[in-house]
Amino acid sequence: MIWHHIEKGHGRPLILLHGIGMNSEAWAPVMDRLAIQRRVIAFDIPGFGKTPGIEGREPDSAAMVESLGQSLRKMGIDEPVDMVGNSLGGRIILDAAADGLARSIVGISPAGLWRETGPGHIEPMFGAMRKVYQAMPAVADRLLKTTVGRTVIMAGAVSARGWKMPAHEAIRSARMFADSHHFEPIFEAFRPPFTRAGDISVPCTIAFGDLDMVFPVGTRDKTRAPAHTRWVRLPGCGHVPMWDHPELVSHVIMQGTH
To answer: Which residues, 6+ apart, have CB-to-CB distance to 169 below 8 Å?
Structure first.
């Protein structure tokens, strides 16, 4: 199958992969900027958005990378390609680079750069967010329609500047995050840390927001990334920084994939 995607622009392909519980629309704030110079392809990762889950095997990074490679080839993209990934998507592009699918990679708050067990607060944080929305969707929707509500609710796992997200986008994102039937199995499959840094030879940029509450500084293990990694700090940004500072995120992406 070809993963569902949105596409803009012309030029050398630039692949964008979103985080867990989200879809390709997570990249909306930066798509137009990136498309000025590039053919930008933002995919729905299997199990989220409009791409069905992977059948018949565990939905781990190896399965995702294999399926991504098949999608790219069916789209006529046979050469290594520039890849950008946020959170879950960041972990997938690390393995894609290790497998030779990437020309360069930019990981934005990528998963997998942690110690053996991963940050212990993530599961209860995500679980609580999903349960609250599932139990009180109407209340959550009303809160997300307000600037204060978006700021407070999005601060944990998404945006440090939730007020910048349009209400309809915040509601859509929250519903998708809460309602995905593939969330738990994919979360479980991606618990192990990334261990293939030595297999990556292409340019690698890793960027974290300094207000990231999902992977705060103390949870990160830089030795999990390639030794040649360029590390970037995103001031005033949270875990999903595209709404926080689209200009800065676009700049980091273009710089890391030039």
So the answer is: 25, 28, 243
